[in-house]
Amino acid sequence: MSILYTLGLFIITAIAEIVGCYLPYLWLKKSASAWVLLPSAFSLALFAWLLSLHPIAAGRVYAAYGGVYVSVAILWLWSVDGIRPHLWDFVGVTVTLVGMGIIMFAPK
């Protein structure tokens, strides 16, 4: 798999997971309608399916995906929650992306 394809797939997967978890949060904490649980369930099922598209061992995919998830979550914090990340958020994102790159793309 190419690096861009892998990263793109991880980003879409992270968005699916975050949406799947954010909608129940809105229901539980922000008084959103229980109807948000339907798209939430769909989004989490999509998340699981997207993770299955990688042709390598599941454990390696899950470990590497975590780095991309952290990055997308920080972008979500900024764009959806309206909270500007600080320097240490960006340092953490850099560390997790380096770890993801080592796990996914180092010679095996």
UniProtKB/TrEMBL annotation:
According to the record, the segments passing through the membrane are 6-28, 35-56, 62-80, 87-106
Give membrane topology per the record: Multi-pass membrane protein
Tell me the lineage of the source organism. Answer: Bacteria, Pseudomonadati, Pseudomonadota, Gammaproteobacteria, Oceanospirillales
**Alphabetical UniProt keywords:** Cell membrane, Membrane, Transmembrane, Transmembrane helix
Q: Which organism is it from?
A: Thalassolituus oleivorans MIL-1
Family membership: Belongs to the UPF0060 family.
Q: Which domain of life is it from?
A: Bacteria
Instruction: Please name the InterPro entries in this protein's record.
Output: UPF0060
Where is this protein localized, as stated in its record? Cell membrane
Q: Name the chain's protein.
A: Uncharacterized protein
